[in-house]
Design goal:
Blueprint lengths: L4 E6 L3 H16 L3 E2 L8 E6 L4 H20 L4 E6 H6 L2 H5 L5 E3 L7 H14 L5 H4 L6 E2 L9 H6 L4 H5 L16 E5 L1 E2 L10 H4 L4 E2 L2 H13 L4 E5 L7 E3 L5 E2 L2 E2 L2 E2 L17 E3 H11 L5 E5 L8 H9 L6 E3 L7 H6 L6 H15 L9 E8 L6 H14 L3 E6 L7 H5 L6 H25 L4 E9 L1 H6 L4 H11 L38 E7 L4 E6 L11 E10 L2 E6 L1 H8 L4
Parallel strand pairs: 1-2, 1-3, 3-4, 4-5, 5-6, 7-10, 10-16, 17-18, 18-19, 22-24
Antiparallel strand pairs: 8-9, 9-14, 11-15, 12-13, 20-21, 20-23, 21-22, 23-24
The structure holds S-adenosyl-L-homocysteine, iron/sulfur cluster and FE3-S4 cluster.
């Protein structure tokens, strides 16, 4: 046992959240303990995001704060992991000498050795010598541009697969609740799209698909440990494709496979034979082979190359969620071209119509919900381009949409070739105006849900409830990381209504063993299979026990963007039976 404690904070997307979980599992097995308080930790690790400048600034300010501590206590080890480490390279250590080690997202399997090395070096050098500082490369694992060497080499040398395979899964501990009953599973790493504004292809490397058997085994292991909700992850998740004839096996382990070029067809993949596992095949296999998974969803979908075969599989497999996150980025064809997105607004709209045609069946209690991402203020964006984006937003009717101001990223094509010429004031105005349009749409969609019966996955006490219980803002943020799904680094846009006030609650005819819903209720939040957040009251004594369960609710109200629900009578009865 090392006996050392680690504070690990995660920024950015779900991919990073999963990486943090895998890294934490590995380090815990080596004897490190984890703490939620950076000030107590011997090792402080930040798993970082580089997608916008703002994401990096948060990390710079955390590192700045740590400098004071390190001056007092030079033994603390500070590490920067993830996309920012990969993008900034060793320059980051030069600019911020508080950093001891760096590890890119493609090298995380090397982190335990790197950390061990850094910790031992600290121990052997009572005082940090300046000479050590001059050799930072000793504690650095970055991919550089090696991942794009050659298709076969990169895939065959993919030791990172071992990190995903090493996933430590333990049976669900009821006390830890929802977090352990909902899990991410990676199916694809990296990205080949090279949208002109985006750093991800540089930080995460080339697109690589994991062998389907590894994915299914991981889902089975998770299900055996009590997981009932799985979200498959990939930057362009629908591009998943594994050709068995050309797969490589090393040391008895089938290796991930480099992504292929897409032909751009929206139709069924005519060339996919018996020996190919397409995304549609993978979804159907997980659904059928891992029946304990009650909810299967995936992010992020790319609006191109989303075949009818995938839509049919979703329609015909009841435990696959009818929820698609399909970023459009802009409603202007001129800008889509400049962004290198590879589709037109008309093609995007066709896809949305096709998806609704297959999957939107509100009359059967199975509506389709969509969400999106938009960038405002991409270079050269005119009022006309912006108006086209507003039109796309209105037509798409997303349940929520993440709206970002364009942030020029060094190393990308847009940064080098297209001057960032939209003034920040204009970006801000378009951002706010678009948020207002989206709020109106989200509000309408919320109202349409009133009266519907839904099943929610209980995530735990709502933020309002935690506040009411006196939890600090920082603690709520940390707890939120564990219990709510964040999308692209954003918290859900829905705001919680006020929880029931203690004074207003009427004590029910309680007997000591029977929970009544009227006694001191607590406000919990849950998520529908279509990713809508619903707030509802539950008995205080069930505050923690319900986390991670599926419960049936009726939507009773929509207040601004929030949905409120009530437990169905049958569900209340079940909860009131102590043996249930
Ligand atoms: N692979 C996903 C998105 C990953 S990045 C996709 O293609 O849909 C998440 C979101 O961040 C993107 O959808 C985009 O809207 C936003 N984004 C990426 N780079 C950005 C930049 N330079 N400035 C502003 N927003 C950006
Ligand atoms: Fe970035 Fe485009 Fe790849 Fe998404 S598809 S990660 S926006 S390059
Ligand atoms: Fe950020 Fe890297 Fe994810 S740049 S959005 S953490 S892939």
């Amino acid at each position: 046992m090392t006996g050392r404690t680690i504070y690990l904070e995660t920024f950015g997307c779900q991919m990073n959240e999963l990486d943090s979980e895998l890294v934490a599992g590995q380090l815990a097995r080596l004897g490190y303990a984890f703490t939620g308080n950076a000030a107590d930790a011997d090792v402080v690790l930040y798993n970082t995001c580089s997608v916008r400048e703002q994401a990096e600034q948060k990390v710079w300010s955390r590192l700045g704060e740590l400098t004071h501590r390190k001056n007092r206590d030079p033994s603390v080890v500070v590490g920067v992991l993830g996309c920012m480490a990969e993008r900034d390279g060793v320059d980051l250590i030069r600019r911020m000498p508080v950093v001891d080690l760096m590890c890119g997202p493609g090298e995380l399997d090397k982190l335990p050795a790197l950390l061990d090395n850094a910790v031992r070096t600290k121990e052997s050098l009572a005082e940090q010598s300046p000479a050590r500082r001059a050799r930072p490369a000793e504690f650095v694992a970055l991919q550089g541009n090696t991942s794009r060497r050659s298709a076969t080499l990169a895939a065959a040398e993919d030791s990172l697969e071992l990190l995903d395979l090493s996933r430590a899964v333990s049976p669900v501990d009821p006390a830890s609740g929802a977090a352990s009953r909902s899990a991410y599973v990676r199916i694809t790493r990296g990205c080949n799209k090279f949208c002109t504004y985006c750093v991800v292809p540089f930080t995460r490397g080339a697109e690589i698909h994991r062998p389907p058997d590894h994915i299914i085994d991981e889902c089975k292991k998770l299900a055996d440990a009590g997981v009932i909700e799985i979200t498959l992850l990939g930057q362009t998740v629908n591009h998943y494709r594994f050709e068995h004839g050309s797969s490589i096996s090393l040391g008895g382990i089938e290796q991930p496979q480099k992504g292929r070029t897409y032909k751009g067809s929206h139709q069924r993949d005519a060339f996919a034979g018996e020996s190919t596992t397409t995304f549609a095949d993978l979804l159907a296999r997980i659904h059928d082979e891992v029946p304990a998974v009650q909810r299967l969803r995936f992010v992020t979908s790319y609006p191109r190359d989303f075949g009818d075969d995938v839509l049919e599989v979703i329609r015909d497999h009841p435990r696959i969620c009818r929820y698609l996150h399909v970023p459009a980025q802009t409603g202007s064809n001129r800008l889509l071209k400049k962004m290198n997105r590879g589709y037109t607004v008309e093609e995007y709209n066709d896809f949305i119509d096709r998806a609704r045609g297959y999957l939107d069946q509100p009359e059967l209690g199975r509506p389709l919900m969509l969400s999106g991402d938009i960038i405002v203020g991409f270079p050269t964006e005119t009022d006309e381009d912006y108006a086209a984006t507003v039109a796309l937003l209105r037509r798409s009717r997303y349940k929520n949409c993440f709206i970002f101001k364009y942030s020029p990223r060094p190393g990308t094509v847009a940064y080098d070739r297209i001057p960032d010429d939209v003034p920040d004031e204009v970006k801000r105005r378009r951002n706010n105006d678009l948020l207002a349009v989206q709020s109106e749409i989200s509000d309408q969609i919320a109202r349409e849900q009133v009266g519907r019966e839904v099943e929610v996955f209980v995530e735990g006490p709502s933020k309002q409830q935690l506040k009411r219980e006196g939890m600090s803002h920082g603690d709520i943020r940390r707890a939120g990381g564990a219990i709510t799904l964040t999308v692209n680094g954003n918290s859900p846009t829905l705001e919680a209504p006020a929880p029931p006030s203690r004074g207003a609650s009427v004590p029910g005819p309680a007997s000591p063993q029977v929970a009544t819903l009227d006694a001191e209720p607590v406000q919990l939040s849950g998520r529908t299979d279509t990713d809508l957040i619903v707030f509802f009251n539950a008995p205080a004594e069930q505050r923690d026990a319900l986390a991670g369960q599926l419960l049936k609710l009726r939507i009773t109200g929509a207040d601004r963007l929030s949905l409120h629900g009530q437990l169905l009578e049958t569900q209340r009865k079940k909860l009131q039976t102590p043996s249930a």
